[in-house]
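Reopening this ticket.

The earlier resolution said the output was attached, but the attachment link was broken on my side. Pasting everything inline this time so it's all in one place.
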Amino acid sequence: MLWRLVLVLALSGLSFLGALLAPGDAVRFGLLASGAAFVVMALASGLLMLWSLWSRNRMFRTISDFVERDSAACIITDDDGAIIYTNASARSRYAVEGGQTIAAALRPVLANPAGVLYRLQSGARDTVVATEDVPVRGGHIRMSARGMLERCILWRVEFFDESAANAAAGYGPQVPVLTLGRNGAILSMNEAARILIGKRPKRLEEVIPDLPLRTGAPNDVMTRTGACPYLISQVDAGPGRQELVLLAVPETAGPPDPDTDFETLPVALLKLGQDGLITRSNREARKLLDTDSTDDRAMSEFMEGLGRSIRGWLEDAAAGRSLNRSEFLRLTRSDREVFVQVTLNRVMELGQPVLVAVLNDATELKTLEAQFVQSQKMQAIGQLAGGIAHDFNNLLTAISGHCDLLLLRHDQGDPDYGDLVQINQNANRAAALVGQLLAFSRKQTLRPEVLDLRDALSDLTHLLNRLVGEKVSLTLRHDPVLPPIRGDKRQLEQVMMNLVVNARDAMPRGGAIVIETERLVLKQPLTRDRAVVAPGSYVSVKVTDAGEGIPTDKLQKVFEPFFTTKRTGEGTGLGLSTVYGIVKQTGGFIFVDSVVGSGSCFTLLFPSHEIAQSAAEQPVHKPTRTKVCQGNGVVLLVEDEAPVRAFASRALRLRGYTVIEAESAEDALQTLADQGLLVDIFVTDVVMPGMDGPTWVRQALEARPDVKVVFVSGYAEEVFGDDKNRIPNSVFLPKPFSLNELTDTVYQQLS
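Inline output:
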């Protein structure tokens, strides 16, 4: 909030300063008015900041009075973990110093407080209150986190000794209990379990070799005297934790339930009361809900995301409303994200309404829906990027063009010559950035040519070695029979540089990067990551590093724009999205494989370009750059951007052409209505307000079929569609263009 206030005050100061220096009264009054408006905004912002500070202090006073006498330790921190307040219990148990973080305060108690605090803080953002039990010596600590306003968190820390925990769970100190973490790691055992097993195992397989666990049936447990059968009860002890209770096998068992039809149905079914409690569930439902028992548990314990109260929804269904209408809910499973489609039906039992819920796994359907929404979002961002790039190309054309005009009037000995060269070079850099935007949106103009990737990568090796630095080694491995491909060499070099730079950044302590090319022949379609690669001959390029790797949950997001795994300020998030856009526009595919801690491998597939033998034997004549020549002829220049039109007309007149200007297609057609006017060439923008370039040119060529055409545009050449192919004697010149590029193109057309 403070930086916004400073920014508004700075803007008001600049407005008042501009008013003092403004040449005219109208501009001066306008700047004074804007300065006054900024001052009013600064006052309003200051009042809001004071109100927010007063509200925060009032909130802290209220909460501190409420939790001061709480028997559990209560700590309030900001979003970064810095301690703001502690109650009497926390001050007596933990030595809290000024400016200390909660992780430092809990470090004498917990082995790894940072991981526990991170999980709870993440859970508090999603569910408001997050709770986790952490085993410690002599018992366990129950920690809870609650999100507050002003980006603060209220932490509550309670200690439970082992005997009290066993009593609360309903089993005495003589019952063996094992506490498990993720992947079957044994975190702790009570005294009865240590006496029974006789050692300190680290994994569940050492205690129960025959996994997975069989619920309701005896499991062989390795005790100090050998394998003994025990019944296993699994109790959820918090996120990622379970308690296994070992119960002795009873000598006799009751008769089996004769009513097995409901249990064995292949459809997940729940029977519910009007209050939302589950009275019965079959095997498929328990498997889908990932639980052993649902008796007398509320449906809201297993599902969420309805958008309204689940109990209210069930009451409506019990009253006969909203029946046979499916709802999509998310299960509260901890192992993976699962969506279910729930359909309620009402039946009568003993004169009372009972609900039967039919559950269908809808995870794949919701995943496809999310992918569709993501594709729409990517398309919208691509259209936005293409529009921004078009406007910038117009600005850069005017800037670089007028700079070229100034350079014609200054030689190298002129003191202003160096400044003009800097302006020209930075305009070219800006044009390269615009090219990245167009590459991301897949709307840049490519210059495809037949390439041998071995030669292209060899030419690029020197630059890549400079990019990776001294701590990283770069190795190239080529297939000796690598076929050529067809692509834009400049854009493919950009792809390789982006991938190599990312690989370098993934290895801050150094390592090796391997670029490997090979021929790949697919006899069957290759389906991977929602892409289908058709059978045929391809050139595969792999860029492999030995870096930190990419987590599985982020692999599907690496090609999204503005998504980066680097720290703030170290990446724009456009590198891989630009790579994706260039590869897809070239007609190729890109895939990524990664293992956390082992590195990543990006695989590019480009269709091979087979060259006929007769064409391969023909010598290749490289075009030679033509020197600047004076031209003659009449040019009709049609451009709606006044700065671009001014530069282009001056550039053409300097080369000896007669230029007739028009700011729209309608003006151009009105000018051409004079049949006595001779025009040799049209130079026209493609996208303009009103009639576009190809449309008016086709109308004009009906009466003047021999006139040559040069189309210019800040969009890519694909904006034509098939129009350019139907317009004879036409070429395309992308913006931004220089003075020489414009005049050379016109000269070549007229020649």
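Reporter confirms the inline version is readable. Residues 363-408 form the longest helix (46 residues). Residues 252-256, 613-628 have pLDDT under 50 and may be disordered.
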